[in-house]
Predict the structure of Rhamnulokinase.
Amino acid sequence: MTAAVAAVDLGATSGRVMLGYVGHDELRLVPVARFPNNPVRVADGLHWNILELYRSVTAGLASAVRDEPGLESIGIDSWAVDYALLDGERMLGTPFHYRDERTARGVELTHEKVPFDELYRRSGLQFLPFNTLYQLAAEQEGGWLDRADTMLLIPDLIAFWLTGSRRAEATNASTTGLLDPRTGGWDDALVEQLGIPRRLLPEPVRPGHEIGPLLPAVAAELGAPAGLTVTAIGSHDTASAVAAVPATEPGFAYISSGTWSLVGVELEHPVITEASRAANFTNEGGVDGRVRFLQNVSGLWLLSESVRQWERESGGPIALPELLAAATAVTRHVPVFDAGDPVFIAPGDMPARIATWFADRGLAAPGSRAEVTRSILESLADAYARSIRQAAELSGQPVSVVHVVGGGSQNALLCQLTADRTGLPVLAGPVEATAIGNVLVQARARGLVAGDSSLEALRALVARTFAPTRYSPAAR
Ligand code: LFR
């Protein structure tokens, strides 16, 4: 028996709706819709174009229903930390983009109330200036929180618009900085200490929970059968991606590689120590209560933002395959920079920022576009190697293989450099790990995975159906 579910996967640069077919020894994805996600800068800052995204999601779901009348469930994932404030059914303003600079003020306000080392002891979350709690502090200063009765993270917002149910899916809620990783519930004392109204936070639910059927008006709009259900999955895209890592043995590290690179290991219990805080490792919630012990290293954002700048300069499109071929052909030694430096977070002229990073340290910057590209990829691989080494040291979990999933798994140069710099074999793919993780958790929740349905069994199914590409480290 084969079951059909739909995955809505919203990334920072594009979104997609996919049909997923799951059966015994069967796992297939069929793309239904792909649409751009273009943030918009207006007077008060950088926002997500959430209504356009929602319109694209419903249009995509309508196509999914047309293509697959037997559709049984819908799951939604997106990037983390961002949210909408609601007053009743009404959305207050347009959700901000995590790259909006207002978060700097939120960090200041929050750390005045609770210093970072205490926050870390409570939530186990790495410092990122855009974590939800900092964004909420900025809203609080503007009086926005007082006007709201609910905060919904992006996938929870879409689920609310589809079903009318307000929930906080737990893997994504773990990126707010307000969840207690030991209990999986909101840290009420911390929420109070920060002066965040407790009423804003809906009940956390775990992946697999049934959020509810489509609202009748939505079902009519989509042409969907009454009773078509939205199922909670690992709604943090990285949680879904990690769930779909095609690992067949323990002792693996993963790199979920897209706009960001999320680099780490999976654990049964959080590691919240002085050393993990100093190394800025996070303990995010995974599917089945696992812990994603990882670091946010920057990602292909560095390259895409550079390409955007070069395109502005040359007034025409730049072909990525040619640029990567030229970067592969670079034989001169290129310098490496700290890809995780926060100066690279905000949008802007990335090649100039990279050049400044080197100049500030009295170092020669890479010259040509090919060299800059090579330097970006070498710097990412260098950061990956460091993060993987630290993840193993801090968690005590040895690593013998590195799985790269997501868009970056198609970048052969980056995968090879990662193998070379880690000294470990790299297994690359699947590209659509996030959508696969989304689909598998829905299918399992609907009882559609026969036999063993442990995370390990799901991963083995991914490994059988999406065989990864192997990169061996160069002999040293
Ligand atoms: C990846 C991701 C990261 C998160 C960043 C911002 O898409 O979800 O895990 O830190 O986006 O939300």
Summary: The chain has two domains: 3-236, 245-429. Residues 12, 79-81, 98, 236-238, 258-260, 262, 296 surround beta-L-fructofuranose (CB under 6 Å).
